[in-house]
Structures are given as structure tokens and as C-alpha cells.
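Saturday, quiet lab. Running sequence design on the C-alpha cells for the scaffold JK sent over.
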């Protein structure tokens, strides 16, 4: 039998039996970036949130240091009204629960999300599922919230619906966060 070679194809790579110097290396596969990713490493949604934050800061500077609490509340309610269901109804209920649990918190927008601040620092926020195209909305707390409990504690909660028990738990957490 002569030096015949068998060419076998195995998953986009050609392997040659026989003389090892004649073997071909596997073809390089094209790597694709995530459709959500941009060249700067941020998703389109993240870039939009950053742009919203810049606009919030500019608007705050125009209003001055004594901005009316009602300005923040109207902006938060307008943002909640823009949300699709079920996030809109959850946002409305969360707004009511937070205001009842901690009236000292000032509603304001934070990266385009409804948020509630104490002494100018965001304590908690509500992120619509559509904001970053996730399957659930998020209610979260910042590091300014007084929720420390041992060496580990929750800082955000996924929400698909809001029950009376959930509202009571969130109300208690908000009270603790501002204490």
C-alpha cells in the first residue's frame, strides 16, 4: 500500500492522517461580541442610563441647592407612569409604601430610575425590568442604607409581583434603612 492519506472532516477542522508535517491546524472560529455590547464595554441600556444621570445632574444644578421636594416627586411619578405593566403598578405601590414607611426620604431620579434619598444620598431605588431588559424588576438599597446585619445582608430584591406580605417586608426594610 502506498502513502495514501485520508482526509477526515470533524467539526469545521480538517485532520489529515499520514505524514504529521502535512496535518492542518484547526480553523480559527470567529468570535462574536454580544449584540448588547458596544465598543466601550457598556451596553446600550447602560449608556442610556449614564446619559439620563448626566441630564439629572444638569437639571439639579439649574434648580439650585434648594430644589423643591415636589420637583423630585413629580419626576419620579412621571418616570413610573412611563413604565409598562406590571412594573408601573409595582412602582406606584412601592412609591406609596416608601412614602408611608419613611416620609423623610426625598423622591428623585437616579440613573433614570425612581429613587429615594436621605440628606442627598440615595437610600433605595426601583429598577424596571425593561430598564436593562431583564426578566424581573429590582428593588434595591445603596450602601447608605443601614441594613448591615452581620457579615452579609441582602441589598437588592427581584420583583415579579408585589403582594401585601412583600409590601410589609419592604416597608420594614425601608424603615430600618433610614434609622
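Result came back. Writing it out in full:
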Amino acid at each position: 500500500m502506498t502513502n495514501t492519506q485520508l482526509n477526515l472532516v470533524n467539526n469545521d477542522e480538517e485532520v489529515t492522517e499520514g505524514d504529521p508535517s502535512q496535518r492542518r491546524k484547526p480553523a480559527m472560529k470567529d468570535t462574536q461580541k454580544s449584540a448588547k455590547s458596544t465598543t466601550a464595554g457598556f451596553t446600550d441600556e447602560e449608556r442610556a442610563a449614564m446619559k439620563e444621570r448626566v441630564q439629572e445632574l444638569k437639571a439639579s444644578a439649574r434648580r439650585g441647592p434648594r430644589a423643591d421636594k415636589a420637583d423630585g416627586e413629580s419626576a419620579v411619578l412621571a418616570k413610573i407612569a412611563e413604565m409598562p405593566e406590571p412594573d408601573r403598578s409595582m412602582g406606584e405601590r412601592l412609591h406609596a409604601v416608601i412614602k408611608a414607611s419613611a416620609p423623610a426620604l426625598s423622591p428623585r431620579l437616579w440613573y433614570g430610575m425612581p429613587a429615594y434619598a436621605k440628606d442627598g444620598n440615595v437610600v433605595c431605588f426601583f429598577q424596571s425590568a425593561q430598564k436593562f431588559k431583564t426578566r424581573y424588576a429590582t428593588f434595591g438599597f445603596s450602601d447608605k442604607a443601614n441594613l448591615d446585619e452581620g457579615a452579609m445582608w441582602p441589598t437588592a430584591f427581584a420583583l415579579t409581583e408585589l403582594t401585601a406580605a412583600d409590601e410589609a417586608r419592604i416597608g420594614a426594610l425601608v424603615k430600618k434603612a433610614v434609622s
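Notes for JK: The two ends are 88 Å apart (CA to CA). The beta strands are 7-10, 13-16, 106-110, 113-118, 121-127, 137-141, 156-159. Ask whether to fix the surface positions before the next round.
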